[in-house]
Amino acid sequence: MKISELLHSQDVGISCELFPPKLGSQLANAKEVVKEMAELSPSYMSITYGATGGTSEYTVDMANEIQNVNHIPALAHLTCVSSTREKVHSVIRQLKEKQIENILALRGDVPVRADFPLPNQYRYACELIADIKSQGDFCIGGACYPEGHPEAASMYEDLDHLKEKVDAGCDFLTTQMFFDNNIYYNFMYKILQKNIHVPVVAGIMPVTNSGQIKKIISLSGNMIPPRFKAIVDRFWDNPAAMRQAGIAYATEQIIDLIANGVNHVHIYTMNKPDVAGEILDHLSEIYIRR
Ligand code: FAD
Question: For ligand 1, what atom is nearest to the CA of residue 143?
């Protein structure tokens, strides 16, 4: 099923995200995680793709496991900046063979490793989107950044590029995580001004350990609201309390989004079905699992 069809429905939809294993020896375990996550009946499940090799090897296998073994629509991520066209086309072919029709088309972070020379065949996600479109009837998603992409000179420059990306053939967008819903609501006004009208799935990250927060800030430059900072300051050295508070905070964000008319939320579940399960238990009358 195409994700665009799900996103045009008025029903509340909750999707979740997994990352693939690095090694073949970890594949059986990873498939078990897919099964546990699928038992929660998310509306779709996405599977990431490591821009610099590492975790890209098994993305197609995992998408196949999600969709063809566990019967949940799969969204396969695909990055381009560190790949050749040949490699990208081969992944698209494999996805097509397995009837995976949803791709999240990404540039990927530009690798800084000296031992990783860039092929320089793609510069931006919009080029990948045009390429995927030319190769089949895929439903294509793109990433967007309610606080601006960290490399962009300004939010407005980033929005101009987002408009180009949508015009290249994006059927929907998924946001980078944010910890203050007003950031998402303000972003929605800004994209409307740019005439961007595709569905925008709100990305929510449950922060369940204090180590995650430093990594998040360094990678994405996210703004941490005082209410969330107070939670981290109070519970950083109590893992069980931090986990509980992080799940409650993410759940509250999701309820507020849905209450304000956002029908589709993507949870960055990071291979933790227990965390996804607790959030969905709190939403049992709001998100009706099928
Ligand atoms: P782009 O849309 O290409 O934008 C990158 C930068 O270039 C922005 O600053 C933009 O303003 C600028 N830009 C775009 N077009 C132009 C242009 N024509 N001219 C000049 N500047 C331009 N990374 C992974 O490695 N694997 C994953 O699976 C993965 N999944 C993700 C899922 C989501 C929902 C999100 C939000 C991010 C994900 N990422 C993933 C991270 C992502 O790859 C990085 O944030 C990356 O730096 C940007 O990717 P993009 O597709 O948004 O790039």
Answer: 36
Of 45, 112, 123, 124, the residue with max ligand 1 atoms within 8 A of its CB, to mutate for a pocket test, comes to 124
Return the ligand 1 atom nearest residue 108 CA.
43
Q: Are residues 63 and 98 in contact, defined by beta-carbon separation less than 8 angstroms?
A: yes
Distance of CA 233 from the midpoint of ligand 1 (Å): 31
Q: Answer for the pair 95, 66: CB distance below 8 angstroms, yes or no.
A: no
The amino acid at residue 162 is L
The 10s digit of each residue's pLDDT in 55-68 is 788 999 999 999 99
CB 169 within 8 A of CB 127: no
Distance 73 CA to ligand 1 centre (A): 23
The runs of H, that is alpha helices, within the chain are 3-7, 27-38, 59-64, 85-97, 125-133, 155-167, 181-193, 210-220, 226-235, 239-259, 273-282
Going from the Cα of 285 to the center of ligand 1, the distance in angstroms, rounded, reads 35
DSSP 89: H
| Residue of 17, 65, 147, 278 marked active site | 17
- pLDDT tens readout for residues 71-111: 999 999 999 999 999 999 999 999 999 999 999 999 998 87
Geometric angle at alpha carbon 42, from 90 and 290, rounded to 5°? 125
Q: List pLDDT tens digits, range 131-156.
A: 999 999 999 999 999 999 999 999 99
